[in-house]
Specification:
The complex is a heterodimer. Chain A is an all-alpha fold. Chain A contains nine helices and no strands. About 10% of the residues of chain A have low confidence. By secondary structure, chain B is an alpha+beta fold. Chain B is about 20% helix and about 25% strand. The radius of gyration of chain B is 22 Å and the shape is extended. Classes of the chains: A mainly alpha, B alpha+beta. At the A-B interface, helix 1, helix 2, helix 3, helix 4 and helix 6 of A face helix 1, helix 3 and helix 4 of B.
């Protein structure tokens, strides 16, 4: 059973109010999910709040999870990211953000690989450098259009079109 | 936000998942998303596409207080306790669909039945908060027979079914008792596939047509009721 199958099996038990399974699910995923929230919120305290909110949702909504519609870890990652993005609205984060964290991503030669699905990376590769930076900074670090514009010192309209075209081209590439 | 245009729907779904759809536009999109299956599919597809970017995010181990507070928020008695699943503690998931009411115990209003093979000692009525009583379930735990009467028409998409489950003691998985009849007035009588006397509750879940493919509930539990022994 791979990691995702294990998560899906745990989610099925959580849907039936199995607290032991919930604990197991938490132990298996919390560190990764907190990592995801920290990248967006840049604050451990806020990220832990997002994580906790996310697990409340996971407990409450596990029965609505459909394995045929989404992979279990995708479903959980999404809940955490959306919660983190919600919390982000409460704070007005100042740029520059945590430059050290930003520096890890997504410079040349430092793009995700290893455990990553083989299909996305070559497609990210195909995007121009700017489009790729926009997509990864937005998805992983929670950058808004405005923040991208500031960080990349590029007009907002140009950023918006990079993001839009980047997404279009990614989809085309993945559907080939 | 006009959402008739397929290209626009795709773009909004992508930007929603990416996180660049912000503020009130994001709020409005979420309102659409709740009821629009096409948008839900597009969003799910984008989530799946972009997900690999998160694979290499460095994990950060949460402090122990995160779990402790979580357990408190969810109202679990104590962390680490209740290692066993509590099937009877199923809660309806959708507020609107939910809520159950029960007429438990022996029904005294029923005329004495002539059929000695069916002497119900379980009598449960599943009542929908919005629609009123939907089913009466009588069961004879000695002869192990169940009779379901549809009190009000239950409208359901053709690709969906409602499945009845017998909940058992902690640690034991629920057992399917079959699909619920849906046509008003229909009465379905059958022999239970599991020992009713060992049941601790009854529950109805929403499943794909033909019932759960896994043998366990896969959809939300819409109605549930504990049986007193």
């Amino acid at each position: 059973m791979d990691e995702n199958e294990r998560i899906e099996a745990l989610l099925a038990r959580v849907a039936l109010r199995d607290r032991a399974a919930f604990r197991e699910l938490y132990d298996a995923t919390a560190a990764h999910l907190l990592g995801v929230a920290v990248r967006i919120l840049r604050s451990r305290a806020q990220a832990e709040e997002a994580l906790q909110d996310a697990f409340v949702q996971i407990w409450q909504n596990a029965a609505t999870y459909r394995a045929e519609r989404a992979r279990g870890n995708t479903w959980m990652n999404s809940i955490v990211r959306y919660r983190a993005l919600d919390l982000l609205r409460r704070q007005s984060r100042e740029l520059p953000l945590d430059e050290q964290a930003v520096a890890q991503w997504p410079d040349e030669g430092q793009r995700p690989d290893g455990g990553a699905e083989p299909r996305l990376e070559p497609c990210l590769e195909e995007l121009g450098e700017q489009q790729r930076a926009c997509v990864t900074l937005a998805f992983v670090e929670g950058y808004s259009h405005q923040e991208l514009s500031t960080r990349m010192d590029t007009p907002l309209g140009t950023i918006k079109s990079w993001v839009r075209r980047g997404l279009d081209r990614l989809r085309e590439c993945l559907e080939r | 936000m006009k959402l008739a245009n397929s290209e626009l729907r795709e773009e909004l779904a992508g930007q929603y998942v990416l996180g660049t759809l912000r503020g009130r536009a994001r709020d409005r999109f979420e309102v659409y998303l709740r009821q629009d299956e096409d948008l839900q599919r597009r969003v799910a597809a984008w989530e799946e596409r972009l997900q690999p970017m998160l694979d290499d995010v460095s994990p950060v181990r949460p402090g122990p207080e995160v779990w402790r507070d979580l357990v408190r928020r969810l109202g679990f008695e104590a962390a680490g306790q209740s290692a066993a699943p509590r099937w009877w503690a199923w809660r309806p998931v959708f507020g609107v669909l939910a809520v159950v009411l029960v007429v438990g115990g022996l029904s005294l209003r029923e005329p004495v039945r002539q059929n000695l093979l069916f002497m119900p000692d379980i009598n449960v009525t599943f009542v929908d908060e919005a629609r009123g009583p939907l089913w009466r379930i009588e069961a004879d735990s000695v002869n192990n027979r169940v009779e379901i009467t549809v009190l009000d028409e239950v409208a359901l998409d053709a690709d969906r079914a409602m499945e009845l489950w017998l909940l058992r003691d902690a640690g034991q998985a629920p057992v399917s008792l079959g699909l619920m009849p849906l046509n008003r007035g229909a009465v379905q009588s059958f022999r239970a596939a599991a020992q009713l006397s060992l049941g601790t509750g009854l529950a109805v879940s929403l499943e794909p047509a033909g019932g759960s493919p896994t043998g366990l509930p896969t959809g939300p539990v819409l109605y549930a009721q504990q049986l007193s022994s």
